[in-house]
Amino acid sequence: MRSAVQDFQKAILEGEQSLNSLLSQTRVIAAKLNLKHIQEWVDLELEGFPKDRELPIYRKVLSNRLEIYNSHRELWQFAGHLNYAFEAREPIATIETFSRQDRIDFPVTENFSIKNDFGDSFGSGWPQRLVVLGSEYQRIINAVVKRWTDEFERAGIEIVDAGRFAEFWKALGRANQQPKE
């Protein structure tokens, strides 16, 4: 078991594996060490949180803005700032993908009422979407790394330099947000 933990720590120090991969390794180690609470949490992170499970507070993201689709101009346009909370129940692999994007768009299930400067309804019946910044999902990644480190330390296993892993993901996110030439 000692070598599995050492291999695991080496993978963290190398900083090249995805959080999904490291959590998969965590699942194996937690099972071998009979750390059921860690194993259950990791399973939820890897598979996503079902509707009937309580969501950790770090798994909530806020939208940045509301957009409407103007079919006359054939484009999405800004309709206002809207801090709408989303439950991020997706598997951690999806969260990682979202964290590397500049923004993620989600269609609204029920349109918001929109009024222009004169108080007239404008665009309320048009397709609408909410925009969530990728940095909201990066915040989830950071929180998972923190909880992951804390859970292992409570179990008496020191995770070496988990901060380096978090820095790797931040840098990867910034690199993927750079404009392509």
Describe, in plain words, how this protein is organized in 3D:
By secondary structure, this protein is α+β, with helices and mostly antiparallel strands. It has two domains: 91 residues, no CATH class; 81 residues, no CATH class. It has a four-stranded antiparallel beta sheet with strand order 3-2-6-5. The N and C termini lie far apart (47 Å). The mean pLDDT is 81.
Mean pLDDT across every amino acid position: 81
Q: Within the largest sheet, what's the order of strands?
A: 3-2-6-5
Number of E-state strands: 6
Regions with pLDDT < 50 over 5+ consecutive residues?
Answer: none
Please report the distance between the alpha carbons of the first and last residues. Answer: 47 Å
What is the domain total for the residues? 2
Strand count, sense and barrel status of the largest sheet are: 4 strands, antiparallel
What's the tally of helices?
6
Query: How helical, in percent, are the residues?
Result: 40-55%
H/E series:
HHHEEEEHEEHH
Judged by helices, strands and strand pairing, the structural class is alpha+beta
Write the layout of secondary structure elements.
Layout: H1 2-14, H2 19-32, H3 36-47, E1 60-62, E2 65-70, E3 75-80, E4 85-87, H4 92-99, E5 103-107, E6 128-133, H5 134-154, H6 162-177
Antiparallel strand pairs: 1-4, 2-3, 2-6, 5-6
